[in-house]
Amino acid sequence: MRRDIFNQDHDIFREQVRRFVEKELVPKIEQWNRDGMSDRASWLKMGEAGFLGANQPAEYGGAGADFTYDAIIIEELARVRAHGLMMPLHSDVIMPYLVNYGTEEQKRRFVTGAVKGETILAIAMTEPGTGSDLAAVKTTATRDGDSYVLNGAKTFISNGQISDLVIVVVKTDPNAKPAHRGVSLVLVERDTPGFIRGRKLDKLGFRGQDTSELFFEDCRVPAANLLGREGNGFKMLMEKLGQERLVVGIGAITSARRCLDDTVAYAMERRAFGQPIAGFQNTQFKLAEMATEVEVGQAFVDRVLAAHVRGDDIVTEASMAKWWTSDLLKKVSSQCLQIHGGYGFMMEYPVATDYADSAVQSIYAGTNEIMKVIIARRMGLDQRS
Ligand SMILES: Cc1cc2nc3c(=O)[nH]c(=O)nc-3n(C[C@H](O)[C@H](O)[C@H](O)COP(=O)(O)OP(=O)(O)OC[C@H]3O[C@@H](n4cnc5c(N)ncnc54)[C@H](O)[C@@H]3O)c2cc1C
Fold this sequence. Notes:
Elements (H helix, E strand, L loop, with lengths): L7 H18 L3 H7 L4 H9 L18 H13 L7 H15 L2 H13 L4 E4 L15 E5 L2 E11 L7 E7 L11 E7 L5 E6 L11 E11 L3 E2 L5 H37 L1 E2 L2 E2 L4 H30 L4 H25 L10 H9 L9 H11 L7
Parallel strand pairs: 1-4
Antiparallel strand pairs: 2-3, 3-7, 4-5, 5-8, 6-7, 9-10
Helix pairs in contact: 1-4, 4-7, 5-6, 5-7, 7-8, 7-9, 7-10, 8-9, 9-10, 9-11
The structure holds flavin-adenine dinucleotide.
Flavin-adenine dinucleotide (FAD) binds next to strand 1, strand 3 and helix 11.
């Protein structure tokens, strides 16, 4: 079905992105998966092509384009399974914090570099002891003269090894009541003494990403590295996480479609009992059901995307899109694997990667349970809030 959210300019842009991705990134994906991380040259090429921070303001190097253009880039990366290069995290999750809450000096220093691919970004919220309950972070940033001194540990941080700038979620007031009022965001640059990169974690899927532990041991940063106001960190996170959830929805529905398309091709080719397996009614029904669900999911994601571009409040709908599409992706990749038979279990078939990669999508960017907590709260069901 034709997707109404795109005009001719978007289509031309998609062609450009697709050509770039096929030429510059697809040949690198295997290497990223082997190395457990992307390479700097690819980031610089993405920056040069104008595919990082496309919707950020022109004064900091962005193209000032609407978010639909970033959605196209996210889709084109997901289509080829280029999950190792965390452009969506860099451009659409982290950059907006810098652009919206940064001082002029922070924007000039960091956003311009991020748009060029010279400053790769990470955000460190999760800790060994807390993930969903963000207000319970234990990492502290203690004011000392013109500095903050950070102590604590973070885990599961994407771009953990390759990043040049990390937004660290800290407690500037560990005794604040309620606890979330003590949360602040502090910028920590590569090579700051006391900023230690831990293990690159061994994962089930997304093997091309350098998900890592980070440690802060008496890590001293200038007080000017505070992002936004002290104690305002939780509010800033809540304001910007909506787009992150939409980003996951856009990627998940694209991945589901790709997995399905590959499986349709496989089912037409693979023969059993003297006929293509696509000839069995069970295969047809499974593929027909999945094709329906992918179209339904796409229609909803497109609707949320259009609302976001208009500037509507999408907190509820982005949460819905995130949990529904990531659950759908898990279902689609599992059923497509089954249709591949034993070959589906072999890593040489992309469906095996899809199956492994799908698992995390209901966990990161806020678990799907937390998405439902948000939706229920917005429906007025939680009287405590
Ligand atoms: C590959 C990968 C990349 C990641 N990248 C980043 C990153 O770049 N930066 C970052 O900061 N973090 C990152 N994360 C961490 C991720 O955001 C967390 O894993 C996630 O928020 C869940 O936190 P947790 O693992 O501590 O689980 P927990 O919070 O311990 O949750 C465990 C289970 O309890 C459920 N649960 C918790 N609270 C509730 C509740 N109130 N109601 C119902 N159920 C509940 C959860 O849904 C889940 O099923 C990444 C994780 C992975 C796996």
